[in-house]
Amino acid sequence: ADSNVTGHSLDSRENPRRMDGVESARSKIWESPLKASTSGAVRQLISAAQSSVSVRMRPHGESQRSPEFLGELAVLHPELLRATTMRMVLRRFGSILRHSAGAASTFEMSKPVEVIAKFLSHSWKTPGWLKTIALMYHENVFRATVSAFATAICLHGLEFAGAGVPMPLVGPSYLLGETNMHQLRLDTHFVPPCLVFILVLIFGQEVPGLAQSTCFLDKCCIHQTDQEKKMQGIQQLGGFLRSSHRMVILWQPEYFTRLWCVYELAAFHYINLGVSGLVDLLPLKLPVLALSLFCYHFAATAATVVLGPTLVFSEMHVTWILENVPAALHVPWMFMILSMAMLAFYSIPGFLLWKFCKSHMEDRKMLLKQLRGFRMDLAECQVESDREFIESKLTTWFGGVEEFELVIRTEVAELVAQRMQYSGPVPWTLMFTGSLSHVFFLASAAVDAVIRSDWPVAAHIALTGIGISCFTDAIAVGVGLRLVDRIPRRWQVGVGKLIGPILLVLTFSFLNGIVLAMMGGAAPWFIVIPVYVVLVFLTWLMSGRWHCLRGGRASRPIGTSQEQSEDSQ
Question: Checking CA distances to 36, which of 223, 278, 438, 455 falls within 20 to 30 Å?
């Protein structure tokens, strides 16, 4: 398997400008639209566009370059090779990321090191709060998710042991079965795990005793007031990059408009021809989407707990259905009622989510446009003398500025487009994180059914939790992102602007209505199983894996316009 896709380690020692037979075979399998001359080094550098995908390089010290060749990237002043920690960067909600002005106190936030875990590459034009949320999510989301699940397991473990923590109930609730009703617990057991998730996501880096990875942040690691030390730090920026095991690009559309950002990418590209590295491309708006979905779903779950016992899941409503609706129509009736409820829940958030979808897809188009039309003379630089310094380095590494521009426009751009198609517009894990409140809410109901030995209902509730948290939202958001890219512009005028948001809201309501309607066991298993098979397939389809099934012959990367695709061809 190609490590560019799977993330396994590479040990490629080929000439950086020539591909051997193995690399050619890999190109045919994974990168058929690319020319066979694509640089293996660049393939190692570029990870998934619009999702955080890591690419492992060869171990440190296996450089095929001579020490003289890497001399310009040497650490000239070891005492100035410094790094800070993510704890310091994210302290006080990332206040250090809000502006570029530094002082002696910010320099003291770093310490001399021999190696650096992460090199943070970013633009100071990007809002600091965006970078803070992205780094918090990137650094803490795994430990936050594990902590939330551990909290839920402890709560329900105490419940099984007979020492459960009492949680307030609004009223008795019931599910519609095939011929009878089943008790449903709607309580606030989902609240503690969700609170733990948010707290660890924000403050996870502050946990005592937790290993702190080192990172480079220019404001902290290069002296900002001592001009002599500042100049020495800038001159050995290549040394910082050479000593870094991973490069984290905090990407926004303005990233490739900054000359120093381009220089960092070029230096890291140069180093990765023979030295270790790891690159993460972090689109900064995606973590904001994950947290927005989490907050919305938390509010929707709370509304279900409060309103469910008096409306859809009330004893009066379920009894009326059993007495007046034929058994064959139980599931269609619940689907209609629940879809209408979901329509009310998603009406306003659906329009806001549509705005995000448009913005996100425009960013994807902008990324490819920037790469395919990259020009050094358009990159901005506050001090023009820096431009001469950077251009001289690029000439040394690539043979000239024009050669470097060609690498960005062709190899890097095509590989990013390929990875965009492979990864899909939004990572599935991000959608799952946004739906955690549903997981904990339905897990509580399933545990209650198990305690009452109502195993069939427990199985149906657990399956519903999996469907809502893992499939329905991922499918709906995937549909929305593709609608943005597919609805003709001539339709998006006047009342036509409502087409996209309405279709998105209807998709959310339809999918969630289907899954919730089968929660009580009213639908037989020979219907439930095919429905979930379809949901799994659609989720896989929305993730971009359909491109791989077709052997990589996608018509165009998702997030690129038809005109861009034709120009690329």
Answer: 278
Phi, psi of 209 (to 5 degrees): 80, -5
Indicate whether 7 pLDDT > 70: no
Cβ atoms of 232 and 239 within 8 Å: the answer is no
The mean per-residue pLDDT over the stretch 184-194 comes to 93
Q: Is the pLDDT of residue 112 over 90?
A: yes
Q: For residue 414, which phi and psi values (nearest 5 degrees)?
A: -70, -40
Q: How confident is the model at residue 460 (pLDDT cuts 50, 70, 90)?
A: very high
**Helix (H) / strand (E) containing 111:** strand 111-112
Closest among 365, 560, 353 to 477, alpha carbons compared: 353
* Beta bridge mates, 199: none
Residue that wins the pLDDT comparison between 395 and 171 = 395
Q: Are strands 111-112 and 82-85 parallel, antiparallel or unpaired?
A: antiparallel
Q: Tell which phi-psi region holds residue 427, choosing left (phi > 0), alpha (psi between -120 and 50) or beta.
A: beta
Burial 18-52 (b: 16+ CB within 10 A, else e): ebeeebeebbeebbeebeeebbbbbbbbbbbbbbb
Q: How far apart are CA 451 and CA 493, in angstroms?
A: 55
Contact status, residue 352 vs residue 501, Cβ threshold 8 Å: no
Q: Which residues contact 234 (CB under 8 A, 6 or more apart)?
A: 222
Query: 480 versus 279: which is more confidently predicted?
Result: 480
Mean pLDDT of 90-113: 91
What's the pLDDT tens digit per position in 491-502? 777 777 888 899
Within a 10 A sphere around the Cβ of 531, how many other Cβ atoms?
Answer: 16
pTM of the model: 0.82
How many residues in the chain? 569
Residue 200 · residue 148 · CB < 8 Å = yes
Mean pLDDT over each residue of the chain, to the nearest integer: 80
- What pLDDT does residue 528 have? 93
| Three-state DSSP string of 414-471 | HHHHHHHHHHCCCCHHHHHHHCHHHHHHHHHHHHHHHHCCCHHHHHHHHHHHHHHHHH
Ramachandran area for residue 94 (φ above 0: left; ψ -120 to 50: alpha; else beta) = left
Q: At what angle do helices 473-486 and 499-517 cross, to 10 degrees?
A: 160
2, 29 in Cβ contact below 8 A? yes
Q: Which tens digits make up the pLDDT trace of 261-293?
A: 888 887 787 776 634 346 778 889 999 999 999
Q: Which amino acid is at 112?
A: P
Contact between 504 and 480 under an 8 Å Cβ cutoff? The reply is yes
